[in-house]
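Hey, resending since the last one bounced:
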Amino acid sequence: MSQPDYLGSANPRLVLYLPHRPNSLAEIANAPCANTLVAANSNHWRKIVNLLAKITSPVEDHWREFRDAALFRQTALCFRPELLMTDGWHWIGGKDNLQRFGALHCNTQPLTECAEVSIDIEKRLLLTPYPDYRQLSNKVVSQIRAALVSQRFYSGSPS
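The structure tokens again:
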């Protein structure tokens, strides 16, 4: 049986592309739930899910509630090395992961306050270090959120 390449919303506001699938993905795919994903996996996946929620939560201070109630209704995880056809944003986490997207042509610009994070506004592409607390501190998450605010990500309307 082949493993699914996708977990989450059919029309995501943001897709996080990762190189490795979590355990029990096939069982979780039909009814994606952040708590179920974390329970079936390691602390590593808890960090990824929390960072996804911190970046995508419409209200910054309510990311835990968003994670538990709506994360995979508004976002998705993809494990294929190609951008999906979606109107939402694309987030590629990690330099090694980015290498898998060999044919990806983009014009990213680094964030002024955070050179390790870059954005291609036209393609709605976010490039960051791998989603881990050591790489994406709360300060970096705040800077990413500020960049997404400037693109009206949280209002639901693209600029």
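The chain is about 35% helix and 20% strand.

Sorry for the duplicate.
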